[in-house]
Amino acid sequence: MGQALVSAAQWTSAQGGSGGKLELTPLNEELLNAILRFVEGFSQKYPDEGKLVFKRPLTWETTLSANSFSGFKEENGVLVSEEKKDDIPLFKLQTQTISIMTMELAEMVLRTAGDKKITELRLCLEANRDPVVNMLGERFGTVQGDDNSILRYVEEIRKEMEQLGKAEQGENEKQQQELKEKNMVLSVRLKLIGLDQQLLNQSIMKISTQVRLTPKMVESEMTTLKGLSGEDGEKCVLEHIRYHGESFVYKNGCRAQPWRQLHGDICYIEAKPHDGSSLYITANTSGCFINKGPDPERPGQLLYDRTDQDTYRDLVTLLKAKSPKFAQIISKQEFALHEKPKDDRHVEVAAADEEDGQGTARSEQQGHSQKDKGADDKDKQNKQGEKKKKLEPSLKWQVLGVDDESKEEEEEKQQKQKPRPKRRSSSLRKQKTPVEPADSFSESSTESEEEEEAVERRAEANADLPSEYWQIQKLVKYLKGGNQTATIIALCSLRDFNLAQETCQLAIRDVGGLEVLINLLDTNEVKCKIGALKILKEISRNTQIRRSIADLGGLQTMVKILRDPDKDLKCLAAETIANVAKFRRARRTVRQHGGIKRLVSLLDCVPLNSTNMTAEMELDVEVARCGALALWSCSKSKKNKEAMQRAGAIPLLAKLLKSPHEDMLIPVVGTLQECASEPSYRLAIRTEGMIEDLVGNLKCTSPDKPANPELQMHCASAIFKCAEEKETRDLVRQYGGLDPLVGLLNNMENKELLAAATGAIWKCAISPENVARFQELKCIELLVALLTNQPEEVLVNVVGALGELAKAQQNRTQIRKSGGIPHLVNLLTGTNQALLVNVTKAVGQCAEEPDNMVIIDKLDGVRLLWSLLKNQNPDVQASAAWAICPCIENAKDAGEMVRSFVGGLELIVSLLKSEDKEVLAAVSAAIANIAKDEENLAVITDHGVVPMLARLTLTHDDKLRQHLAEAIARCCNWGNNRTAFGKEGAVAPLVRYLKSKDENVHRSTARALFQLSKNPENCITMHEAGVVQPLLKMVGAPDADLQESSAGCIGNIRRLALANERAKYA
């Protein structure tokens, strides 16, 4: 109890020489209630411990009077107990001061207090901050760190017990009494420790659910809501929202007056919803609540008192509770930014950020500039100061579920241990290249960050730096202060160092060389530009240098150089951009400043197959190669891909793809395979005739000159992405691309090439025509050999390919003969979600063969598949359920096998609560197979399968309809399930399934209706729903099963009608 009061309880600060008080907080209330429950009934549970006399009395100022107590005597106006210890009464009440010395008396006082027991307990604990000291002695006082008092006390008791065995009879009784008392002390202490542990756990759980507001959080919410407010009642969440009262912002970010800040107030807000009057809100560190609004007697002043006891964790939660209209609009997320005429340009930029899904520093600045009118004037006066102010990310895009990148970048910059060199001219340099107005200032939300900033490895202050470090420092000084000749000499000397070495790279940066080199790019001297770019090209391979170049505005200058008539400069600038644009911010900067269009223009060069190439023509080709390299780096962004397509990159890349030079082909194919993730690029690659070139580059041109593995890898990766479309798969086969893809499977050591080749085979195997060729090439044996000792990215593709190939019966047999089934079953125990989806599909296809099913069952594969139904990924759940279907169909004793899975049937029925339609369809199909066994059908009926299936009948998804109707038809074969389906309202929706254009839906629905029609009430419902006419048409369908079910259903309805007719005239 002592540790909980010290560590968990919330106390006010000490004032006037008195100790602090327990705050009136929910956490303290929970702690007091837990202590109260511990004290009440203590003496009944532990009678001996309840009578244990404390070392010192617990004393406090009580609210109770002497008349409240009975059974005590009065001495000189003091109420005392007859029991005493060392002439000190165990109970004493003098005026309003009460003292107790046993837990039994403590329980009695609380019982006497009645409704005031919490108040009494609070007063007692406030007066006795560490009650354990009073109760058990100083040795058990609360301490910080390890508390060994219990261990020492136990050791003391053990020694006394040893002495007790040696003592004489007279002393023995006395020691036994002391030992008994110590055992009770130990018992009480252990119980108090248990209470302490309980209180600490409660406080941790309570604190973990509480989030205290900060000024930054309130400011972010206000910025968001201001941008989403306006007169439009359909799209704007509020009419307006603004700060109320003073516009002055204190250093801590609060707007409330200092004396109100002592109460936790941050600011005061006026919000006008569309469906009510203005709300006056107090933003407090404990949450947001409604105050009484402006004081009518004192203009400009607020009544700070609450209107109710409700406190909300943030502003949005409060507005949702107070305004149904606000809650409705914000839940739909159909709100728009409120555009102000003065800031059209800024809102345009912010809207572009929203579309692309990533916040930028600029968009944040616009977001934070949406201040109230009073603050706007001040912002204008302090415009330059605001630019330097650290901007916090707006919650605007968090409402839409989008992350903000600039916060991550700020955190990355703060990790630096040494400050960067001053940016003397970077701001001016950035403004030299105008930003294209049509471009978006955001990065693709789907793009993953390719590289994280590496942790700087700096030498310790007292460590010896290599001599190159000091030599580079001297050369940089010449660069800074020398004339043109000295600058060129210094640049040449710098190139003599090993610039691939990290020490040299960081040395240039640390001594301010990067800024000088970037400044040289703005000069008119071509030689200085070339020298600086050659150095930047080499050192920009370093992750930290890349980011420093971007921070110093180097990319903007390099984009400008792309327009320079000097082709050497263009090459060097493009190559340097290719190195720097390895992270999102750099790629975005290139696009924003028109770099994509200029890089695409570099691709336009002379025909590459020309026989007589002059030096000028070769330089043109080199410029195109460098441009392709830069576009390759930039193409990792979705926005950049779109910009490249608009700039006309596709036909130029198609022309370069016919080049005979590998150094040209690698960046071109690399760019294409990055862009092939977009459907528009896949269509263009197919229509521009690039598939033939990609296939051609896969092949080995001659025995003397083997194919380049890197080029093959990029070609295979491009085919992998493009082969989603059937037309592309057919072209790959027609151009002979399947043979080289299978041949690449022999490159066991090159994992990247192996992953690309297996991925291409996987997608190509979707077409049955390609599968026939893969059979001839004995592809299955090669793929099975790759099921072990391979990385997951290879396994995902290998298993995916086997799953597609296994759709053919002879291939399923071949997988078994090649020993692939045990490896596939072993992979069911993995954790990679994509791998699990593919391996379950492959195992399900293999299970279509009875001989394969014997092996799967022997290896406990069905149990593993069933366990994957517990996976949180809906794709894994669905593919596992689909795989279970053929396992049940082809297992020898399927019913017994399914029942052997403990909780298996309950698990699969519970998946009918899923919101994923693919999961529901797969589970319905599995239930249809499970229900073939009567005992299993009885079990799933007990688990409530009937109402769950009935609830799904309103679906419009034909795939789900087919398997749902099949499951209902099977489940009708037990007990009163037919009647239950009718009562659950499943019959009428099933009739509507007959309007579907899918014949499979018709067949399964007719079966279900036939089974349901065996119940008279269901027949009536069907007839009323108009089932007869569609069924009459289906009686003439070519499908015999559909004919039979339709006719049977009509027959049951007709028999019921005849029975009713007879009953009328009987």
Order of adjacent strands in the largest pleated sheet? 1-7-6-3-2
Oligomer: single chain
Mean pLDDT equals 81
Low-confidence stretches: 14-18, 334-463
Characterize the biggest β-sheet.
Answer: 5 strands, antiparallel
Rg of Cα set = 40 Å
- DSSP strand (E) fraction? under 5%
How many E strands?
Answer: 12
Helix content: 55-70%
> What form results from the Cα inertia axes?
extended
Distinct helical segment count: 61
Q: What separation lies between the terminal Cα atoms?
A: 85 Å
Class computed from helices, strands and strand pairing = mainly alpha
Organism: Littorina saxatilis
Protein name: Armadillo repeat-containing protein 4
Region (Disordered): 351-462
Biased composition (Acidic residues): 402-412
In short:
This protein is mainly alpha-helical.
Quick tags:
1066 residues, mainly alpha, copper amine oxidase-like fold, five-stranded antiparallel beta sheet, 61 helices, 60% helix, extended
Give the secondary structure arrangement, pairings included.
Layout: H1 2-7, H2 26-39, H3 42-45, H4 47-50, E1 58-61, E2 73-75, E3 78-80, E4 84-85, E5 88-89, E6 91-94, E7 97-100, H5 103-113, H6 117-127, H7 131-136, H8 149-166, H9 169-208, H10 215-227, E8 240-243, H11 258-261, E9 265-272, E10 279-284, E11 287-294, E12 302-306, H12 315-322, H13 324-332, H14 344-356, H15 361-368, H16 373-381, H17 383-388, H18 396-399, H19 405-414, H20 426-432, H21 467-481, H22 484-495, H23 502-510, H24 513-520, H25 526-539, H26 543-551, H27 554-561, H28 567-580, H29 584-592, H30 595-602, H31 615-634, H32 638-646, H33 649-656, H34 662-675, H35 679-687, H36 690-698, H37 709-722, H38 726-734, H39 738-743, H40 751-764, H41 768-776, H42 779-785, H43 792-805, H44 809-817, H45 820-826, H46 833-846, H47 850-858, H48 861-867, H49 874-890, H50 894-899, H51 904-910, H52 917-930, H53 934-942, H54 945-951, H55 958-971, H56 977-983, H57 987-992, H58 999-1012, H59 1016-1024, H60 1028-1035, H61 1040-1065
Antiparallel strand pairs: 1-7, 2-3, 3-6, 4-5, 6-7, 8-9, 9-10, 10-11, 11-12
